[in-house]
């Protein structure tokens, strides 16, 4: 009996699947090429530094959002957490914690940063508790905390700005502006922070049991639970990590501007979702890569800054970002269907 070789996947299908998987890099090359010709001085060194700073802020949020979406959830509260944490940073720099009777606790820069991050993790913890213990849908839970965090930010100053956040040398907070405006080896501090957070997130997702559990929960939550995965703990972690990333953005913005406003971070969640989805994270959960998300953040950042340099109306910028999100989801669905079809063809061929 002569064995019949399994038919290979058609070349056109394989090529299409490769292009879909590499869509983020293709999009990055296209937007870079377009704005290099359409926007004067877009590729200048000075503009590259500005773009990298904008990208870093979105990338922080997108990294946290990636973990959340991989588990099949969503975090709409990250923009409001940014605003709340910026206001907390401003309050601590200017006032410390008032104990009454003329006494107060003042903090140095490191302590301020740690407290701000603790606030972000705390809001993420609340999101996790609502979703895991009270079984509130992620969309509703994080929509609620979006309003609560934004309201708390407004209440902290009656809607006013905390200005002049230069810090106080006497209390060790004079270095606060360095977080957002300082450099190390010629690169902005926030870029080094992004590198550390990106490497940590990538290591967790690819090299640790926790990372495997995150993908397992998103792929099949019931199956993961039956396999012994602590689903509640995994979900708590991803929302707390998302809150931490949002807190870092709030801290950086307050430091960079040396001022904090309660409206800081409005609509930031949309850019984070767009970057994650454009980077290959599936909205249905179970698939996504931190590296792809960072590239997606570059695409969104370059698109935003390029449109501004071209003088495109902010209204049209919003429309274009919305179209990018829709296109990314449509392409993701196409990739999923194509991968499923290829898998079925390979199984059929193997069964011959």
From TrEMBL:
Q: Which UniProt keywords apply?
A: Cell inner membrane, Cell membrane, Membrane, Transmembrane, Transmembrane helix, Transport
Does the record bear Zinc in its keywords?
no
Q: How does it sit in the membrane?
A: Multi-pass membrane protein
Its GO CC terms? plasma membrane
Q: Which GO terms describe its molecular function?
A: transmembrane transporter activity
Report the subcellular localization. Answer: Cell membrane
Q: Which Pfam families match?
A: BPD_transp_2
Q: Where are the transmembrane segments?
A: 25-43, 55-74, 80-100, 112-130, 176-204, 236-254, 290-308
Signal peptide region:
none
Q: Which domain of life is it from?
A: Bacteria
Q: Which InterPro entries match?
A: ABC_transp_permease (IPR001851)
Q: Which PANTHER family match?
A: ABC TRANSPORTER PERMEASE PROTEIN YPHD-RELATED, ABC TRANSPORTER PERMEASE PROTEIN YPHD-RELATED-RELATED
Which protein, by its recorded name, is this? ABC transporter permease
Organism per entry: Fuscibacter oryzae
Q: What is the organism lineage in this UniProt record?
A: Bacteria, Pseudomonadati, Pseudomonadota, Alphaproteobacteria, Rhodobacterales
């Amino acid at each position: 009996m002569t064995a019949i070789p399994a038919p290979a996947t058609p070349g056109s299908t394989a090529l299409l699947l490769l292009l879909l998987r590499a869509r983020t890099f293709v999009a990055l090359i296209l937007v870079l090429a377009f704005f290099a010709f359409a926007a004067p001085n877009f590729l200048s060194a000075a503009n590259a530094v500005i773009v990298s700073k904008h990208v870093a802020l979105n990338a922080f949020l997108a990294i946290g959002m990636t973990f959340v979406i991989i588990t099949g959830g969503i975090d709409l509260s990250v923009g409001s957490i940014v605003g709340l944490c910026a206001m907390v940073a401003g309050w601590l720099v200017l006032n410390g914690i008032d104990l009454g009777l003329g006494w107060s606790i003042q903090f140095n820069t490191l302590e301020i940063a740690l407290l701000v991050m603790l606030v972000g993790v705390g809001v993420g913890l609340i999101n996790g508790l609502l979703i895991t213990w009270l079984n509130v849908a992620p969309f509703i839970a994080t929509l609620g905390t979006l309003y609560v965090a934004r309201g708390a930010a407004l209440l902290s100053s009656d809607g006013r700005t905390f200005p002049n956040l230069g810090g106080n040398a006497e209390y060790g907070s004079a270095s606060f502006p360095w977080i957002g405006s300082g450099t190390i080896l010629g690169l902005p501090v926030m870029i080094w922070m992004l590198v550390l957070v990106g490497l940590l997130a990538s290591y967790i997702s690819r090299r640790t049991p926790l990372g495997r559990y995150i993908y397992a929960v998103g792929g099949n939550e019931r199956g993961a639970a039956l396999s012994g995965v602590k689903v509640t703990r995994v979900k708590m972690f991803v929302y707390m990590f998302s809150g931490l990333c949002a807190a870092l953005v709030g801290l950086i913005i307050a430091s960079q501007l040396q001022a904090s406003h309660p409206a800081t971070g409005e609509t930031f969640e949309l850019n984070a979702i767009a970057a994650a989805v454009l980077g290959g994270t599936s909205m249905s959960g179970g698939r996504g890569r931190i590296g792809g998300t960072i590239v997606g953040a570059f695409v969104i950042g370059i698109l935003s800054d390029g449109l501004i340099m071209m003088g495109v109306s902010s209204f049209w910028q919003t429309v274009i970002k919305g179209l990018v999100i829709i296109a990314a989801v449509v392409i993701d669905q196409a990739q999923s269907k194509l991968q499923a079809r290829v898998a079925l063809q390979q199984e059929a061929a193997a069964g011959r």
